Automatic annotation (TrEMBL):
Keywords: Monooxygenase, Oxidoreductase
Keyword Acyltransferase among record annotations: no
Top-rank lineage group of the source organism: Bacteria
Organism: Faecalibacillus faecis
GO molecular function, one term: monooxygenase activity
Keyword Ribonucleoprotein in annotation: no
Protein name per Swiss-Prot or TrEMBL: Antibiotic biosynthesis monooxygenase
Residues covered by the ABM domain: 7-98
Amino acid sequence: MKKNNAITVHIYYTGENGSAKAFVKEMLTSGLVDEIRKEKGNRCYEYFFSVEDEETVLLVDSWDNQEAIDLHHSSSIMGQIMELRIKYHLHMKVERYFLDETGIPKEDQKFVQKKGLLRK
């Protein structure tokens, strides 16, 4: 069986005076997000807003493998993203995660609320 090398990257964009949210808005309205989602090897590209820190936005960016990330990084899209990061004066914190092919351990599954089991 072929090993899955999927990588998920969390990028925390932080700015001032709403600049991180403005960055996301421009990423969406410019069509860049749609282009990235169509790139070979992209599994997920979603932004999330922090409830506790209004100046930080989380990007969850997932790829099939490092090669897919490398292709993305060498694309013209990446250059446009970098220009927008500069335009909005964003700082970044980056975390990388690898897919755990073993799944959720049996001991942990009891803490996962499943559809159809919700109490009314």
